[in-house]
Design a protein that fits this description.
476 residues; four-stranded antiparallel sheet; 17 helices
């Protein structure tokens, strides 16, 4: 029997699960973020949440008078949860750099700060970093800086007292903005579990057991593997058995995993021959929804249907089968790219050397056994470009004009979305179709024109024969 939520009565279980989903979806909760009721909900269940999240997942919940901060244990490098700009686009490297420098600069200010003064402080630090800089005379630099400040404002670390950041970004000579600084929230925003200056590679951040102070003794290994298995299912669209090592595979197949996660989150665990997934049809927990609205999501769904149809071919028209990069190989590749951006001179020069031992080196087979190689259908880049051209010709009237006119960018973003949803793996020269892709093999679509009342309803989720409505905007 599951020990999760032992102290929660059946009548209150739904409210408790709502609090679990809330803190998992928003690791930082403040009086105004993500909404005014969120902190009250989390604080009501804080004690039970601390116990269950640590026991089931190895996550630590830290609460103060005005914050609730969830410290996650990280098992991999995840690029699917970026910070977002005011326009809803992922942060680029410049914006992330400005965000970090803004946090550092705010630590040197008092209770209030003017936006122009804060920009000057960040610029003074940015100019010492090769290739960065912050020139307030340049509109792109001002926009990137305001995106970083807005990200902090949305979470309550800064509160606008007077003026307008947007107006300042438009003309800093004529406009200004004044902010109140919330020290408690500011500290909760940046709450690392490691002293970053001591890390030798980004993969050192993945030593989650040591980072959170968990026991590393032999007696705790099975418990930590069970936590890792629950995290894998919770944090990813699907956990494929073929990618799991022997110990983790046993935990993924254990009945207790489904029982614990379903009682903790209120969602349903679905098992198939290829893996296990936590199904969130309502979007109560997911940070990335698929299918969804927007040009990229619509194009990705239609592309998924065409890839899935190609997978069904047999005989001489069957797709070539290739092995996918292992989880360890994908982690090593991502780490290499990130480590290449670390400082290469000064006091932290040692950070440029990758820590090869810190990466997970696991195989689907047990110790002393030959790993079982799983192969997946392969589609080439040229084939994908051809299918997207067909999709654009048939449904492009419903796509955003800028993406419709830039097919390479649209294809790249669509494939990135499919990869983030564990539907494909991108490899040199094309992509590999993963088993979950078969869920979308019967997708059809029709273009509908928006009316004055608003856009039409979107796709029915998780059906094998999905009808996808693409809204055609009557404006050019």
């Amino acid at each position: 029997m599951s020990r999760v939520a032992e102290g929660v009565s059946p009548l209150e279980l739904a409210d408790y699960q709502k609090a679990v989903r809330l803190v998992l979806r928003h690791p930082l909760v403040t009086p105004g973020y993500p909404d005014k009721a969120a902190l009250t909900t989390v604080r009501r269940w804080a004690g039970q949440l601390r116990t269950d999240l640590m026991e089931a997942l190895g996550y630590r919940l830290v609460t103060t008078a005005d914050t609730a901060r969830l410290q996650r244990a990280q098992d991999g490098l995840d690029a699917t949860r970026p910070a977002l700009t005011r326009a809803g686009r992922p942060f680029d490297r410049r914006r992330y750099a400005y965000l970090v420098l803004t946090l550092a600069a705010l630590g040197r200010h008092g209770a209030q700060v003017a936006l122009g003064e804060l920009a000057d402080a960040v610029a003074a630090d940015a100019v010492r970093i090769d290739g960065l800089g912050l020139d307030t005379a340049r509109k792109p630099d001002r926009d990137a800086f305001v995106d970083a400040v807005t990200w902090l404002t949305e979470r309550g670390a800064l509160t606008l007292a007077d003026g307008s950041a947007t107006a300042w970004a438009g003309d800093p000579e004529r406009a200004e903005a004044l902010y109140d600084i919330d020290r408690e929230i500011l500290l909760a925003v940046h709450h690392p579990t490691r002293v970053l200056q001591h890390l030798t590679s980004v993969t050192s951040l993945l030593d989650s057991s040591g980072a959170l102070g968990l026991s590393a003794g032999r007696a705790a290994q099975r418990r930590d593997q069970a936590r890792r298995a629950r995290r894998l299912v919770l944090e990813n669209p699907v956990a494929y058995y073929a990618e799991a090592d022997s110990e983790l595979l046993g935990q993924l197949r254990a009945p207790a995993l489904a029982e614990d996660l379903e009682r903790l989150t209120g969602l349903t665990v679905e098992r198939r021959a290829e893996g296990v997934a936590l199904i969130d049809t309502s979007g109560r927990l997911s940070d990335l929804r698929f299918p969804g609205g927007g040009t990229v999501a619509q194009a990705a769904l239609l592309l998924a249907a065409r890839i899935s149809a190609a997978v069904q071919r047999s005989g001489r028209h069957a797709l070539e089968l290739l092995p996918a990069p292992t989880a360890a190989e994908r982690l090593a590749a991502r780490a290499l790219r990130l480590d290449g951006a670390l400082p290469s001179h000064g006091l932290v020069a040692e950070l440029t050397a990758p820590d090869e031992e810190s990466a997970y080196e696991t195989t689907p087979g047990g110790e002393g056994q030959e790993p079982t190689e799983t192969r997946y259908p392969f589609v080439t880049d040229s084939w994908l470009r051809g299918r997207l051209k067909e999709i654009t010709a048939e449904y492009g009237a419903g796509f955003a004009a800028d993406l419709r006119g830039d097919p390479d960018r649209l294809l790249g973003q669509a494939l990135d979305l499919l990869a983030a949803m564990s539907l494909i793996v991108r490899v040199d020269g094309g992509a590999l179709a993963l088993p979950l892709l078969a869920r979308y093999r019967g997708v059809t679509a029709r273009v509908r024109t928006r009316t004055a009342a608003g856009p039409p309803s979107q796709t029915a989720l998780f059906a094998d024969d999905t009808v996808n409505d693409i809204a055609k905007d009557p404006t050019p």
